[in-house]
Amino acid sequence: MAARILDAAEALVVRFGYRRTTVDDVARRAGVGKGTVYLYWPSKLELFGSVLTRESAQMLAEQLAMVKADPGEVRLHRSMRCTFLQIMRRPLSKAFATRDYDVLGELMTASQSGVRFVTGKIETTARYLAVLYKHGLLADDPAADPALLYRLSAAVTGAFLLEGVPGMGDLGLEDKADALATTLRRAFEPAAEPTPRTLRGAASELTELYEQWAVELAKALPGGDT
Amino acid sequence: MAARILDAAEALVVRFGYRRTTVDDVARRAGVGKGTVYLYWPSKLELFGSVLTRESAQMLAEQLAMVKADPGEVRLHRSMRCTFLQIMRRPLSKAFATRDYDVLGELMTASQSGVRFVTGKIETTARYLAVLYKHGLLADDPAADPALLYRLSAAVTGAFLLEGVPGMGDLGLEDKADALATTLRRAFEPAAEPTPRTLRGAASELTELYEQWAVELAKALPGGDT
DNA sequence: GACTGACCAATTTGGTTCTTCAGTCAGCAT
DNA sequence: ATGCTGACTGAAGAACCAAATTGGTCAGTC
């Protein structure tokens, strides 16, 4: 039930944007009464926050599968390359990452959902970086260098926000992802290639971290849906 | 006279933003009639475009002075560090770089001024990069790698646009500039330190490029002012 | 001949009414 | 009871229009 409502909300917000999507529309499309929506979420904002949360849970699951298939995927530049492509291919996440106010409206600025979603992401990124460093996959110690997280955020943010600028974007999406990967590998990773053993070690530890995070995300959603 | 009008326009736009600043206000503050403004500029948009152009001319002059004082300043990470600080310390340029729509309004999106200003900057950056590469100060050949300019834009853009995001900005301005410099040095420059001789060579060539550009910017301004 | 400010068309603003929508809750169906 | 619904309400927003501003012009002044 909750999942059906989320499906409806997602489809509508992608098509019409947050502001122009009414709770009534969502309920009708899901084939339930409006009151039912409020049985699961306290407000419109939190409903759409859940849509975002579900998207990020789906992306996390993809990421997890890729790491399991190839431990090399844990490396910062590989992981971020993949994340970049995932986000850019999902209209909602792309709207969020590129700060598309027309689509997300207040959902972007509201202190709930939107921002909490990002701060959660940042916090987990910090833990991810700590693990990478422990396994020698990061050039600098994130614990010793408070600016590291800022540097990484800036480097990644640029790739997303340059998207909205015309004239600069005549590269394919894959090319842009490669560009981001190159920058990250050189700016944040050690010069030497890691051994397969190292990668497996980091992968197993990160798998656990990801799975914990997946559980946390699932807990934030009403019902036990995908 | 043109300079006095530009001074007035600059002061007012910093304080009230483009939309809330009227041409009448500017004229009155400059102590001239409104018609006089239209003797120098064909429209409000171009008047404020000139304000932006003058700012960038001033920054270019500063940059030039620094390169003359220390040829090491031509290195990409040093140059961009300095540019970052210059822009962030000037309210107008900062508003432009951080896409502050409240201050710049249509001045940002209009096909004149704003955008032409940026495309000019990008074009010159391409020439700047070619010179750096020729002198061995850049890891990759910008002519052979069309994504290089994109990579650089993304890396720099991130530093500027992260500014508007709360929670991430608890570093000092200098720290952020250092962070940008670190990322750029590692991601775009050769690992080896350049020799003083190399730097002097690049500096003299770039000085010429900068001076050419300064002339071009001055030509775009009415009158022969600062 | 350099400069001005009253003037005009076009946009913006302020105020008012009418509509829509987020959120609630009494009641229906099962 | 229990799970769900959709009519209801106040508040926010759209639509409308008259009045005020403002970008740009040009006949006239110094």
Q: What are the key terms here?
A:
12 helices; 226 residues; DNA-binding; homodimer; mainly alpha; 0% strand
Proportion of β residues of chain A? under 5%
Helix fraction bin of chain A:
over 70%
Count the domains of chain A. Answer: 1
Shape of chain A: globular
Structural class assignment of chain A: mainly alpha
Could you tell me the number of beta strands of chain A?
0
Q: Runs of chain A with pLDDT <50, length 5+?
A: none
Radius of gyration of chain A: 19 Å
Helices and strands of chain A, in order, run as HHHHHHHHHHHH
The CA-CA distance between the termini of chain A, in Å, is 12 Å
Count of alpha and pi helical runs of chain A: 12
| Most extensive contact | A-B, 32 and 32 residues
Mean pLDDT of chain A: 90
Q: What's the assembly state of these chains?
A: homodimer
Largest sheet of chain A at a glance? none
Compact summary:
Two copies of one chain form a homodimer. Chain A contains twelve helices and no strands.
